[in-house]
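Record format v2
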Amino acid sequence: MTSAAPRIKVGIVGGTGYTGVELLRLLSQHPNAQLTAITSRKEDGMPVADMFPNLRGRVDLRFQTPETAGLEQCDVVFFATPHGVAMSQAQNLLQHGVRIIDLAADFRLQDTQVFQQWYKMPHACPDILKQSVYGLVELNRQKIAGAQVVGNPGCYPTTMLLGLAPLLEGGRKLVDTTHIIADCKSGVSGAGRKAEVSTLFSEASDNFKAYGVAGHRHHPEVAEQLQILAGQPVGLTFVPHLVPMIRGMFSTIYARILPEALDTDFQALYEQRYGTEEFVDVMPAGSLPETRSVRASNHLRIALHRPGGGDQLVILVAQDNLVKGASGQAVQNMNLMFGLPESAGLTQVAVLP
Amino acid sequence: MTSAAPRIKVGIVGGTGYTGVELLRLLSQHPNAQLTAITSRKEDGMPVADMFPNLRGRVDLRFQTPETAGLEQCDVVFFATPHGVAMSQAQNLLQHGVRIIDLAADFRLQDTQVFQQWYKMPHACPDILKQSVYGLVELNRQKIAGAQVVGNPGCYPTTMLLGLAPLLEGGRKLVDTTHIIADCKSGVSGAGRKAEVSTLFSEASDNFKAYGVAGHRHHPEVAEQLQILAGQPVGLTFVPHLVPMIRGMFSTIYARILPEALDTDFQALYEQRYGTEEFVDVMPAGSLPETRSVRASNHLRIALHRPGGGDQLVILVAQDNLVKGASGQAVQNMNLMFGLPESAGLTQVAVLP
Amino acid sequence: MTSAAPRIKVGIVGGTGYTGVELLRLLSQHPNAQLTAITSRKEDGMPVADMFPNLRGRVDLRFQTPETAGLEQCDVVFFATPHGVAMSQAQNLLQHGVRIIDLAADFRLQDTQVFQQWYKMPHACPDILKQSVYGLVELNRQKIAGAQVVGNPGCYPTTMLLGLAPLLEGGRKLVDTTHIIADCKSGVSGAGRKAEVSTLFSEASDNFKAYGVAGHRHHPEVAEQLQILAGQPVGLTFVPHLVPMIRGMFSTIYARILPEALDTDFQALYEQRYGTEEFVDVMPAGSLPETRSVRASNHLRIALHRPGGGDQLVILVAQDNLVKGASGQAVQNMNLMFGLPESAGLTQVAVLP
Amino acid sequence: MTSAAPRIKVGIVGGTGYTGVELLRLLSQHPNAQLTAITSRKEDGMPVADMFPNLRGRVDLRFQTPETAGLEQCDVVFFATPHGVAMSQAQNLLQHGVRIIDLAADFRLQDTQVFQQWYKMPHACPDILKQSVYGLVELNRQKIAGAQVVGNPGCYPTTMLLGLAPLLEGGRKLVDTTHIIADCKSGVSGAGRKAEVSTLFSEASDNFKAYGVAGHRHHPEVAEQLQILAGQPVGLTFVPHLVPMIRGMFSTIYARILPEALDTDFQALYEQRYGTEEFVDVMPAGSLPETRSVRASNHLRIALHRPGGGDQLVILVAQDNLVKGASGQAVQNMNLMFGLPESAGLTQVAVLP
């Protein structure tokens, strides 16, 4: 960290949730970022370190109202808000030359009808949406570098898209794309920092369950991106589950190999695809990734299996839902947008045990 | 469980919390109880098994409003409600000959001024309070058997009082009663089934903290009972802590042995005091009780230590906060009040692992 | 529990693991069982309650060596041992008229070559194996009632077989049986009470991972039983995962509905199949079972989903791996074998929270 | 991190435990350290990243035997070994000019008789022991800066000593030093990465217990240091407990204020004592520190309470047992010994949630 490094002025809207505190953790240690403002109408005046005691002595900011925070003077503003907030403030910020990274869903779905169906509100700025970029770096690096507005991917989609991309890109015909299954498991922090009975310790601990089987908001997001990747609609069954752990996401993806593709060296395919990626680790064939191996880090690990050597491909994907699945990926996007090294501020080694 | 056994008609007011579902679990398996009504104004009409899926196929009741539940026809009504509810309904039920067991604080404190100070409301029925009995069976067995209204003890007080009673009863001068320390630890279910950020899984898991150091509502309750036991005020420092486990309570109690009592055989004293108690287990000297050894059971275990053979007595007490610390003790009280075997419906072996 | 009830003399071989302590918990509360002997060569002389403190005051037995335990005088002996022990002692016990329930794998696989391949030892008594019965009550009730030797199913197979039976029985052609997927998740107690680094609290807590993807011993067991059910080989991909919870097992099963079966009322099919089963709960369509809803109980819950109304059937199955997945099922088998009510000793309500 | 910074060549002996992996995590991110060698006779040849998957892509070292590791060429060697190893190798390393930081107990106790009593072995190098320094930076900064051998404090002692130092230093007569109580709670990682039944997930999760009440090895260590601080023996009752969390340590310390010291401003005393300390945070009076607020960071937080304004002082101390309680403190010592900024490599913000 050298004093001569340029500092990007960063604002955060709505930093009272888990993606907010994770942004604060990462950005307060980022060599090229200067935390400038954080807003919360409800907590106006409160030091953020009073809400998030891990920041005591490290982050001096107080929550401010959006009106007084001076977000227009920032270089970039992260929205760690409920869905619908970023799109209502985007126009104004863009006019002031502020770049936007939204961690909610406002800029994830290009299809505004689908957006309205799932988020129960019309899209407020379809024009801006059209120019926005889906912020999955490993798929959209070039576009992100030039973007003014980035829609940061959902946590589940990140695992599914990176887990499936090598199979679908470039019109490859390797697996049956009509019936892909993604059995996904998330730590409880994915549900956010909202006071709800279902995520109380006494409800979620020592328990396992599926949820959202009938439909989850991340499904249309993945479907849209998979279609872009494959050049055609992809049939996906996506079942999320809740795991009694704080952080971590694990997706077990099942794809049936097409008869003509049975000789494919999938391991080589994945290694080649992600060989230069700093944050995607294709583990040796047959490996068993663990979520703790990426706890608090921006790495995502992939391992391929083909049980019995048959036609069923099993792809295991592990990430920290709050880092690569949210705030770390957002910082990675910021780095790209500002011409910084992609890993700036994201070099922490995962915490184990 | 024989069909000829007399059945007590039981009503539960406010069974949507953890003491409520624990009452339902215990009473639905009780050979002499007949669950008759359960009230929740908010959940009127909902099957209790929809809220508490462990009861599916075992409890057919639906929540009803207090007006329609017919509580006056019950033999006994348990209040698993916030503080203040039981005292507002006690008069009416008593007039109908219904006995009352309150799991909140309305009938725990004889000093109505102290009650008002801690619970921020005047006591609604001081006359009934005077005739009510503090429902700690091992201390008040006789009185409970004849009581119309029982104030079921708080979870922390149960451990502290049973842990200290043998030292203080009968005017014994064994320990310095001016500076007793109770360092207590509770599982998160003790905080109840309220939607609050501080008890979310992501906040309470993988964490440890003290709380209520400046003052906790159970302090005046213990103080009053200790004074009754000792015949004089007892100086107690009580510090509660939150443990990332669902159930379980552990109190480490420190008492300084008086010089003239250094030769006391404390182990024998405790064994003698609790020798005939079914639910208090004085373990061999030097034992290390674990909360899991009483998980889901009504047993409380005590072990005595005297590190280095000196004058510091360390008393370890473990219980399940929802059973002996709440609903199990309430059932134990019911058994006494209705002349049943004290352990009726309370014979389940603790669940381990 | 009436004193006149007949008492079955029960022996347990190797009760130092989790299935052992769970058998002790269940049998010590069983109205018709009399715990007679428990063996452990290593712990000879130790009171079982010293190893399992939940049994203090409830089980007085001490571990004995097999030689001194008098197992031949028992009516039934449970083997809660490593694979290979039951088959070495079966002959002798059977000659004394003792019935056998093995919780390990010795009597699960009829194909002795497959047994040898997975368990690295030849089968010691193929003749006895041939007469033994696979102890999944809901599939083999009649045979179990007359069996001398029962191979108690593995925990994973129980969920997969009960989850799939209605689709496969009777030669039904409802789903594509060449590519069924079972994504299964188990609590850590499934790994047993062995001192191993990988299941230490600091390794398994706050973590999620798959294991045994390349092959798991329960796979041949399920395959054999599925073939019996379907009358033909069934193609199954089975991926087990480890969940940071003590008890509980959850299987998410994916089956593709055949075009000609798209109109099937699967919910009705399952409800009809299991309508009279006391321990299998087919929940209303679209339900979301949770493992905690069966914690410490013998119930298994199933819920059916058909996301988007398409051709992908998703079957959710939850059980307690130590009860319905092991010791509870073993007691259910014992009840059948001795003409007792199937639920004798298995009526405890699940513990929640 | 500038390339021009001097690099200290670091060796680690026995890095297969939790203090080992934590050293690797911290040192691999340290701007002035160069991980040079790590030894494990048992794991000779294994990449450390295979044992600790969080290090994949970050640490390339392989375990080596002590003979081949070239420890004599290091600038400093950390011993993350069982007790007794460091003292057997110290002489040789010192002769080669290598400095030593031992994370075990070999250089914690100056009294070799006490050492032998607790660790069941004679001390191998009393001469080196005499010149070694107890590595609690905030108490011994000067001495550590000039030390060749540092005995890194135990985790419990760190909390007790820093929690009590301001009360005892300089011959202050503020509290009754004959009866101080330290009720301490540790996460399970404190028990190390040894395969033992008692720290299995299924044993330690959802449970709470005390242990070592009759005597714990950290007791003589604290006693010796407290005597140095106070200039006289201090009477301490120390009771450790096991908390179902991976990391974190919390000590609740009770000291009775002497009558003549009742007017002391303890808050000011502590703030003054630790005002310039980077890693000791005296929180505002009445604060409630949480272990998660220091998870994976080198900070230790202290909060003072005086319940009811009486004569009982309650000191709450929270740290991460693996960082400030072990490996972080060891790096802090290294920084001092080599003239680096004390916080070099220790600036990570705590991970929350």
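DSSP finds eleven helices and 14 strands in chain C.
Chain C has a mean pLDDT of 96.
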